[in-house]
Design goal:
heterodimer, A: 697 residues, alpha/beta, 8-stranded mixed beta sheet, 21 helices, 23% strand, B: 304 residues, mainly alpha, 12 helices, elongated
């Protein structure tokens, strides 16, 4: 190893405290790290772990109400205690920043070129023309096509991915020493995330800057970071080089976190290991290790004093804050696993008999939903049509989970709303539990059908009325379904609470008293109240932290087996879908482009879009993540307005470049239908894809 | 079940917790607390003040016409020999009853109409037409010359304060409805409203159970500030001779009486004017304090 260079950024004993009604919130309690040029430090942690506050403190962007102490030295100069004016001179020149939401980070009324020029001229003595030339170079560097023309565009003319590239261009405009990226890809779709992470890597290599990557996604860390800092309850609990952290985590929290993440490349389905409980409140932390309350191997000493972050013997790069770290080897302690793997049944497509013998719970054929595009405020006129759902077929049998995947804007949500509305669709046919929705007449029939299909929403906060007790929330669907009798409803409420793993004695509390995972369990209990046969799960775990997500996924598997439920599981996270679904349907721009069993679609994807999607999902394993081949799609999802004539994916298709003129012509003029691959074995009979080139037919 | 059961993190009773929090925030506003104390004192005055004097507001003391404050008549007497103290007790009570009743009614009507319209607008095509129709009526009534109609209505009702209540309510519920509608249009997009709809909960139940309770804080604040507005409107009407009429007494009629003899018998004007000022200012302070206490994002309330 070369002689160790001086760190560009050195943080020592960083503490951040906010005031609140309940008392001081100690958001960050002693963070130390050094950042070296050209290296990426990944800070991971769950919500509330203090990772974002740490990065904001380094940038000096915390509000005045935050009390910051400790030391942040940038190239030898102390930043803590500087006024806003002095910090502004550093920010943007020595520290480049990339935030989660690129739209609100750019001023809408100036062109991106003007904003780049301004960013340079504030900090450097550079002529307008030179800055302009440099701006075009920067845009080209971050991969914005036709930079000479796009430099005159406004931010709203850019897509989300392009805006984030633009932010990176701005961050590196002044050759910063440090780039801080706070959840830079969280708001983006996976295919775009892959592009942006590539650009971030490129930016680091071009400028030689050190990068701080704050994220909750272990897959992103595995692919991008060199060193990792795991935070919990405001403190680093483990830090190590990325490979070592993933190979040999030594702190129980890290072990739990890694075991809780589903993997998109997992061939066999292993039960996920949930970390029980939820993080302590940062207001009154218990004495001792903050993780002790959730740690399966905590001993009495853990509860008396908080263990310091100490390097492991024989390795100064790997440090943990755990008393028992010396006993933990390979995720096991004294020969037994730190976390016991829960006994969750493998929920293959349930029920006796083959798939075709089981009755269909939901069947959707050629579903179509369009929205008029209106203009004019006084005289409204129609100028176009948005084909939100162009042609969707779904088929779910009893006891089966269908995963519906696709990027944002592909029409997933519209499809769900069409199902839940229980009205005759604009085009096509919906049958729920054998009943054609268009034929439902009268209130009684509608109520009966409503009981069959229920929905669980994404946001556990917004889906529960904050002013109702949990008991009232759970009783509401029962009353709506015409159940009566106070005692019977109360008994059912208790039963539902127990079913989702909550204490029935807590039913009189309000949603605010529960954690995110518990609220999602309440949402599931509410959906189950009327004993539906089909549960629509709209991104049910995407708002949850991974350690909590595992518990909810295991619960869903359990309920499915116990109650014989069918799920329509909508998610953008393919790892989760691979973990829970029996069958998958991939959606692109209002159409299903591929469907089939999970093993088939993930193991042997036919459609080029599915392939690209799968290769873009980060895998939480640095070795796999850095060696596997990637299909990076160019561009973003096109707009779903206007009539389609050919394959909707053609604009981004990686195959298109290799096609002959006649093949291309066919892709352009003929909408591909979902068909079974030629010469497929019988087991593949329902693996279909909609691509002219995939099956040579 | 081997699903790990979990216990809620905070075992406190949330409802009491929330009320206690609001109360703590409210107490922090010194002006709001002062307003509350003054207003409570005024209410006590209207309820119990009558016990401290042998006179009623209609009783005439022929031995004391237009007399200044004395032991017998602490606030003096009018030209007709009425005890000003007794009149003040009754007048303030009358004004407050009118204002509180009108505010309660307008807030209730505004809540139901506003959130009902918002709920309709979130539904099917006919619902959106219904919403537009309701809003049309609201907007039309907002530009009607309310003061003129009020004057005519109270003339026709020959000074009965109940007619005044009806007329004031009929012409002032729209502002509240418009306000509630704006807020409820964002609430109707919440997932719990969607969830209720997908469970088959009927529309009126969704409005009453999910929409209105969640704009409770808005309604409380709007109620307090409406009381102020109605006290002012009622006094103004009564002052110019409409509204409450003789022999009934309100702050407005007292002001009208007193304004004629401001230099010769100043107590006739000072007493009702002071009461009016105390009432409106104290309630406005309470309303402001409530808004800060209930709204976590407001400047004063969000501060730790």
């Amino acid at each position: 190893m070369n002689p160790v260079p001086d760190p560009v950024l050195s943080v020592r004993g960083l503490h951040v405290t906010f005031g609140s009604e309940a008392g001081p919130v100690r958001a960050v309690r002693g963070v130390d790290f050094d950042l070296y040029p050209g290296r990426t430090l990944g800070i991971v942690g769950e919500s509330g772990s203090g990772k974002s506050v740490t990065s904001l403190a380094v940038m000096g962007l915390l509000p005045d109400t935050a009390a910051v102490s400790g030391s942040i030295r940038l190239g030898g100069a102390e930043l803590v205690g500087l006024g806003d004016r002095e910090l502004s001179a550093v920010r943007g020149r020595d520290i480049g920043m990339v935030f989660q939401d690129p739209l609100s980070s750019l001023t809408p009324i100036y062109t991106v070129g003007d904003q780049l020029v301004e960013a340079m001229r504030i900090h450097r003595d550079i002529s307008r023309a030179a800055a302009r030339t440099r701006a075009v170079e920067l845009l080209e560097l971050v991969g914005i096509p036709d930079p000479g023309r796009r430099v005159r565009s406004f931010p709203h003319e850019f897509s989300g991915g392009m805006r984030q590239r633009m932010m990176i261009a701005m961050a590196i405009a002044n050759d910063p020493k440090v780039i801080i990226a706070d959840e830079p890809t969280t708001a983006l779709d996976v295919t775009v995330q892959a592009q942006v992470l590539d650009v971030l890597r490129l930016a680091r290599d071009e400028t030689g800057a050190a990068v701080v990557l704050v994220t909750h996604d272990l897959g992103v860390v595995a692919g991008t970071a060199d060193d990792v800092l795991v935070m919990y309850a405001g403190r680093p609990v483990e830090t190590a080089p990325v490979q070592e952290l993933f190979d040999a985590p030594r702190m129980p929290y890290t072990i739990g976190l890694l075991a809780a993440v589903p993997r998109v490349d997992a061939v066999t389905r292993r039960p996920l290991v949930p970390v029980p409980g939820s993080p302590p409140s940062p207001v009154d932390l218990p004495p001792g290790c903050p993780f002790a309350g959730r740690c399966p191997v905590a001993v009495d000493d853990c509860r008396t004093a908080e263990p310091p972050l100490l390097p492991l013997p024989g390795s100064d790069a790997h440090a943990t804050a755990c008393l028992r770290t010396g006993e933990i080897v390979d995720g096991r302690i004294g020969g037994a696993p730190v976390f016991t793997v829960p006994d969750v049944p493998d929920t293959g497509p349930g029920g006796p008999g083959g798939r075709s013998e089981r009755e269909p719970v939901l069947s959707v054929e050629h579903l179509r939903r369009t929205f008029p595009l209106m203009t004019g405020s006084l005289i409204r006129r129609r100028v176009g049509t948005v084909h939100a759902v162009a042609d969707v077929d779904l088929d779910i049998r009893r006891g089966e989970t269908l995963g519906l995947v696709g990027e944002s804007g592909c029409g997933k949500t519209t499809t769900l709303l069409e199902l839940m509305n229980l009205r005759a669709p604009e085009g096509g046919r919906i049958r729920i539990a054998g009943t054609d929705v268009a034929r439902v007449r009268g209130r009684a029939e509608l109520t009966a059908l409503r009981r069959e299909i229920q929905i669980v929403f994404q946001d556990p906060m917004g889906a529960l009325d904050p002013r109702m007790t949990v008991a009232d929330i759970l009783a509401e669907p029962l009353r709506a379904a015409g159940r009566s009798g106070r005692a019977r409803i109360a008994a059912r409420v208790d039963e539902l609470m127990a079913m989702v793993g909550l204490d029935p004695a807590h039913a009189e509390r309000f949603p605010a008293a529960f954690s995110g995972g518990q609220r999602q369990r309440i949402g599931i209990a509410r959906a189950l109240a009327t004993e539906p046969s089909l549960l629509v799960l709209d991104e049910p775990v995407s708002a949850l932290d991974v350690s909590v997500q595992a518990g909810v996924l295991n619960l869903l598997a359990q309920l499915k087996r116990d109650l014989g439920l069918s799920y329509l599981f909508v998610a953008h996270d393919l790892s989760v879908v691979r973990h829970v679904a029996d069958r998958v349907a991939v959606m692109y721009l209002g159409r299903i482009v591929e469907s089939g069993s999970v093993a088939e679609v993930f193991g042997n994807p036919q459609h080029p879009y599915t392939r690209a999607l799968l290769s873009a999902v980060p895998v939480p394993d640095p070795r796999v993540e850095r060696t596997r081949e990637r299909i990076v799609l160019t561009g973003d999802l096109p707009s779903p307005t206007g009539e389609q004539h050919g394959c909707a994916f053609l604009t981004r298709c990686p195959l298109a470049r290799t096609l002959s003129a006649t093949e291309l012509e066919r892709c352009r003029s003929e909408i591909p239908q979902l068909v079974v691959k030629d010469g497929a074995a019988d087991s593949d009979a329902d693996h279909r894809s909609a691509c002219h080139q995939a099956h040579g037919s | 079940m081997n699903v790990p059961s979990t216990t809620p993190a905070a075992p406190t009773a949330p409802r009491r917790g929330r009320l206690a929090l609001v109360w703590r925030r409210f107490r922090r506003g010194r002006a709001a607390v002062a307003g509350l104390v003054v207003f409570a004192a005024l209410v006590l005055f209207t309820l119990l003040g009558g016990l401290l004097t042998p006179y009623t507001h209609t009783a005439v003391d022929f031995t004391a016409l237009t007399q200044g404050p004395s032991m017998e008549h602490p606030f003096g007497t009018t030209a007709g020999g009425n005890d000003v103290y007794a009149q003040a007790v009754h007048g303030l009570q009358r004004s407050l009853v009118i204002a509180v009743t009108v505010s309660l009614l307008t807030t209730a009507i505004g809540a139901v109409v506003g959130s009902g319209a918002a709920y309709l607008g979130g539904g099917r095509a006919w619902g959106r037409r219904g919403e537009r129709a309701v809003l049309g009526v609201v907007h039309f009534l907002m530009v009607v010359p309310a003061f003129l109609i009020l004057s005519l209505a109270s003339q026709w009702g020959s000074g009965d304060y109940r007619v005044l209540i009806v007329a004031l309510t009929a012409l002032s519920w729209m502002t509240g409805a418009r306000l509630v509608w704006t807020v409820a249009t964002t609430l109707r997009e919440r997932e719990y409203v969607l969830a209720a709809r997908f469970m088959g909960v009927p529309g009126p139940a969704i409005v009453l159970r999910h929409l209105i309770p969640n704009i409770g804080s808005l309604l409380i604040v709007s109620f307090t500030l409406t009381v102020v507005a109605v006290v002012q409107a009622e006094t103004a009407l009564s002052f110019i001779g409409f509204g409450v009429q003789v022999p009934d007494v309100s702050l407005g009629t007292m002001l009208a009486d007193g304004s004629a003899s401001m230099t010769t018998a100043p107590w006739l004007l000072t007493v009702p004017a002071t009461l009016l000022l105390l009432t409106t200012v104290s309630l406005a302070l309470v309303g402001d304090g409530l808004r800060d206490a209930l709204d976590p994002t407001s400047q004063a309330g969000g501060r730790a």
